[in-house]
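Sample A.
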Amino acid sequence: MASKKDYYELLGVNRDSSSEEIKKAYRKLALRHHPDKNDGDGKSEEKFKEINEAYSILSDPEKREAYDRFGHEGVGAGAQGFGGFGGFGDIFGDIFGDVFSSRQNRHSRRQNGEDLRYAIKIKFEEAISGISKEIKYNRYETCEECDGTGSKKGTKPSSCPVCRGTGEIRQQQGFFTVSRTCYKCHGTGEFIEYPCHACGGDGRIIKERRLEIKIPAGVDAGTRLKVSGEGSSGLFGGHSGDLFVDINVSPHEIFKRQGDDILVSIPISFSQAALGCEIEVPTVDGKTSLKVPAGTQSGSQFTLRGKGAHVIGGRARGNEYINIVVETPSKLNSKQKKLFEELAKESGEDAHPLKKSFLDKILS
């Protein structure tokens, strides 16, 4: 196994260098060989590990003294934990915290606003043709009194007295530095000594929002519309959330929806089915005529092309399907019964091809 390199040589300092000189040398080398700046460079990665280990020993007075007296043997057990990147995060934070903490704190204060959901119920016809609706809902909006700062007019947030503006509370535990979010400022690094009377220091207040939303033609139950930026306002420069509108559609008495197609069942009389007729049928665009040929059976389906729902975002439309239901008379007077009896005698089997075909199959 190759012998370990001298820690002083790795950092490029003398044995009588001060702690500040060692710290300065380490900072310079760490920035040069950091993995983020040398992606895929194995030599830089190895160098980075070595200087990380060296600084972990020489920055600690007791470990440095042991190293000066006994060399690597004196600190061998303690140095093992710094061969990789595990200890670097804490050391790097201690060394470079003053450089990066202010930038981090500014970002940690910025928070995006919450997304909101709103459910709306519309009629079947409104879903087919599209409609504009005004809705009312509550959301967080930036406090106008303090302009979102949370501080009373004429005052500003001060540096947090607990974490001194870093947003973190650090504790040394052996070789490691353990950091946790400051309980006083919740990681923002700032403390509001004089809260705004309107928002209580939150920087936002709840307000009713009136908004007209455009519901496009062709929406169906379960459709969700996204209205960007109409959710709650963000904090400290954060983006506003979005509003999601869930569409519910009331069922129709006649029409049934199946994707972009519309289904409707139309009852006709026995005589209309037998003799053929022209009937008036409803569509979402109004009434239209439909020719029913003689001998139409119950369950027959006719198609009205382009009479269905609009395809959202396009010009195409689905179809309307007319299902014919032949209605059998349930109450007959004596004259009607006699006429049906005579019709039955005159018709014979030839008048009922479906029945004849069915009987032929089960008797064969």
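Sample B.
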Amino acid sequence: MIRFDSVTKRYPDGTTAVDGLSFEVGEGELVTLVGPSGCGKTTTMMMVNRLIDPTHGRISVDGADIAGVDPVQLRRRMGYVIQQTGLFPHRTVLDNTATVPVLTGWKKAKARERAAELLDLVGLDPGVYGSRYPEQLSGGQRQRVGVARALAADPPVLLMDEPFGAVDPVVRDRLQKEFLRLQATMHKTVLLVTHDIEEAIRLGDRIAVYGTGRIEQYDTPASVLGAPATPYVAEFVGTDRALKQLSVTTIDRADLERPPFARLDEPAAEAMTRMRTEGARWAVVLDEEGELHGWVGTEELVGAAGTVAGHARRMEAWVPVTGTLKDAFSEMLKHDAGWIAVLDGHRFLGVLTPTTLHEALRRTIGGRGERGVRRERAEVDSVPTQ
């Protein structure tokens, strides 16, 4: 969708902002440009909508050289989100959001209808917030309006310059999650500038790590963390890159273990006898469809009447199979659990232990990890949560 061919930007005083950039952004891909201040990442993004023109080289969008496109028309076909949102203070939230559709010729009623849809999509009820002015919103709410406005005309390309940098860490986390949810639905082609490597890793399908005016490495977050291309990249991503790797490593079903289990409708006495025969102190409780209903220990079943269902305890330590190793590790620490259940919806798939988490992480770092690390049964036999 976006292609840079040997692009250089040199200013009259001799300063070279970017030097010989060549890279591509695929359709529907979210690429983060990350690096220190003054490295050229914002200049790169601003050349895409011709707020800055390159000195040399060619930039094409959807196969067309943007040098031959009227800058105003080009910008109206791209969403643009900046750190301070750039909302018009004298216009309501609804009218701010409808700005680009109106400029491109939409009738006002249709533009406002589209604006209301987008506000709802970013989590702002148009009936509540549509008539408010920017000064009546929190920083996080203004950022949401900025994203909604950028999406209002349904542009194929979205340019974002430090979009979440002006809010506190808690709000930033929420905005990042919300944006990832939107991107999963809308599949825009996105260039996002950030100085925060954590944000770049979390959001990007690919990351461009900038040195001074050049891209030092352009690859997936897992590859940048697991195999830095240069000493500069290794230093930039940090010595804790193995821990950062947790956030970009998804759960692999092959790493899951199957602990002892008891059926929901199984007589309590039978379940206790079987568990003791198997040497298990506790078991996960599943129904006939394989859905998780909690866990039960043999202590709860001693002399117990009825079925296991009446003695099962709630399972607190669990993650969806779509989660990351970081999610699993965080939940494990939060609940002081010896293992964590992995679910597909409500269906129980298995458990991750500290040993299997470590094994999974090792395989992602530089290809050094191997299957076959001995798994300690003692970890699976510990009580999951109290």
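B remarks: Residues 343 and 349 are 6 Å apart (CA to CA). The domain at 253-380 is CATH 3.10.580.10 (CBS-domain).
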